[in-house]
Amino acid sequence: MSGLVLKLGPKERVLINGAVIENGDRRSRLSIVTPNANILRLRDAIHPEEVNTPVRRVCYIAQLVLSGDADPAEAKLQLMRGIEQLSQVLTDSDSRKILNNATSEIQNGQYYQALKALRALLPREERLLSAAQVQ
């Protein structure tokens, strides 16, 4: 992940290559220069009991790669299948752009960037599910 800059708030935690790192009392910036480092901001982490929607499932798979709990090659297939399924439902142009971006990042092995893109779909999914419940 060459060139990734993490801006951390006070006491914020991040998982880097399996190690949990906690920031001190002040805001800070970390520049990650090691390529292909597995990084997950813990405030953004989806917990297993929260994996209850299609977008959350796909995000969780990417998150497992970043935490080192999933084999990237195996996860890549699951992610691509999940994105294909999402693309059949999320057909608007903005969602398509996000899904295409996530697909490109996965193909390049950039799981952090893929997760970041996929997380942009969470509010949209929530609105769609809320609207479906009202009807």
Automatic annotation (TrEMBL):
One Pfam family cited in the UniProt record for this chain: FlbT
Listed GO molecular functions? mRNA 5'-UTR binding
One of the protein's GO biological processes: negative regulation of bacterial-type flagellum assembly
InterPro entries given in the database record? Flagellum_FlbT (IPR009967)
Ordered alphabetically, the record's keywords are:
Bacterial flagellum biogenesis, Cell projection, Cilium, Flagellum, Repressor, RNA-binding
List where the protein spans the membrane.
none
What is the name listed in the Swiss-Prot or TrEMBL entry for this protein?
Answer: Flagellar protein FlbT
Q: Which organism is it from?
A: Celeribacter neptunius
